[in-house]
Specification:
100 residues
Length: 100
């Protein structure tokens, strides 16, 4: 049985530099990936993410793009409102019962 491999992490600067080597320098993805010791699929994904949204590409761990952060906040708020509504329904049901 093989020992568990730890997952390598790359910082934002490394990813941007790798994409720059492909985009600006005109390097082939497979060649640049091999030289950097990463897979071509990974580099292709980084390139696609960077070209889609250069300013917010590669957010650091635990950080989201502003749009995604707003979605997370709204989902949390919606869940809280749904929970409050369910509590109010139960309270209404209890108080609307006729005394026996």
């Amino acid at each position: 049985m093989r020992p568990k491999e730890t997952r390598r992490r790359f910082d934002r600067e490394f990813k941007i530099e790798a994409v720059r080597l492909v985009v600006e320098e005109g390097g082939r993805i497979s060649e640049v990936a091999r030289n950097l010791g990463i897979t071509a699929n990974m580099l292709s994904r980084w390139k696609r993410e960077f070209l889609d949204d250069p300013e917010f590409a590669f957010p650091s761990k635990g950080r989201l793009k502003p749009h995604d952060e707003e979605m997370r906040k709204l989902r949390r708020e919606l869940a809280a409102v749904k929970e409050e509504r369910e509590i109010l329904k139960k309270v209404l049901a209890i108080f609307s019962k006729e005394p026996s």
